[in-house]
Specification:
Radius of gyration: 18 Å
Largest sheet: none
Strand content: under 5%
Distance between the termini: 58 Å
Shape: elongated
Order of helices and strands: HH
Number of helices: 2
Helix content: over 70%
């Protein structure tokens, strides 16, 4: 039971940290998602060319 409680506590801490990073307007998560979106757009554009 202790092992499950520790895993749950780690999960809660990670979720709170992720929510705090995502809540910032120009936060790390927002910048990461923007970079991934840009890279995916360039990748799909490159694939669509003959």
């Amino acid at each position: 039971m202790i092992r499950g409680q520790v895993a749950l506590e780690y999960l809660v801490v990670i979720l709170v940290l992720a929510a705090a990073l995502y809540a910032m307007p120009d936060g790390v998560v927002a910048q990461l998602l923007e970079a991934l979106t840009s890279a995916f757009r360039l990748f799909t554009e490159g694939l669509s060319r003959p």
